Amino acid sequence: MPGWNFADVWEVVAERVPDAPALIDRRGTRTWAEADRRADGVARALLDLGVQRQDKVAQYLHNCPEYLESMFGIWKAGLVPVNTNYRYADDELVYLWDNADAAAVVFHGTFAERIESLRGKLPSVKGWLWVDDGSGPCPEWALSYEDAAARGKEGRAAAPWGRDGDDLYMLYTGGTTGMPKGVMWRQDDLFALLNRSNLIVRYPEDGGLDDVRRTIEKPGLVGLPAAPLMHGTGAMVSFSVLNAAGAIVTLESRTFDAVELLDAVHEHRVNAIALVGDAFAKPILAALDAQPDRWDVTSLMAIVSSGVMWSEETKQGLLGHHPGMLLVDMFSSSEALGLGSSVSSGSGTTRTAKFTIGENAKVIAEDGREVEPGSGEVGRVAVKGRTPIGYYKD
Description:
394 residues, alpha/beta, 22% strand
């Protein structure tokens, strides 16, 4: 069906602000025009593998510009990106890619040896795109990602089946619901939900690409996913920033380094950070407390967390260093956005784990009654409206 499609929107953004930064890391900055062109090359390389409409492409990558750039290419080709937890063991990887029916895999070179031992168990994978991370040469059985990206010079990649709002983003759970499950989001639904909560740029929900053209006049915000892009928190905040013509900064370290993050905030004037609770926030606060004059963090407008507890004590400590930002604790899951939220700022505090329920959410008792707020009764949180269409093959 017609509707919002991320690749369509990002192509229009690249048309409107071609020279604006889109993807930033220690190697430099890729403009929107460069990212758009390179993603066309990735799309062309994937289509040449003989894939079919809505085939799945696994991304076995640490945070890097190629993560979002390859996702752009996957969506351009009318295919479905599949997140891959890079901490999975061999059997877990085989299960995930087999369950997802992966037709191709984009992977960092550091994983080449592991993949070598697994390829025989994954006969449905038609191609492997190797992203150079300095760990060794490209295997003979893989295609260099840079060679694929260079094919963008051949022009816009066009899949014979086109694209639309029914095209999927598939987000695999981490196994909290048993074995990992592929949560199937229609792009139109996910885009609309992220658009509703965008504080800077918001398109009409039933609008289209002409609205993007009218709205985008200058570069957007700068975002930094401290959380892995393989998880929904880092990915969805990044999508929101890119939807509004912003830029995404990715860090180099393979384990979280608060000093590296604060250096990037200071250098790139980052406006929004995505993290996962105190595991990230406490080291950031400790670094700021130890060296309060080292970094200028006044560019930060918001820090968004989702997935685990974020304590109010830590939030207040961070606000002590910059009271002008908002600290947003999102109560959501891979399967449901907008269950609730908690916002702390320099002008107000919220108790730890105290959320305001979302406008489309309710708490339902075991017998189907709606739980009265403040009653103390326990129930299940449910959300209506735009939700995933189900788990893949389940």
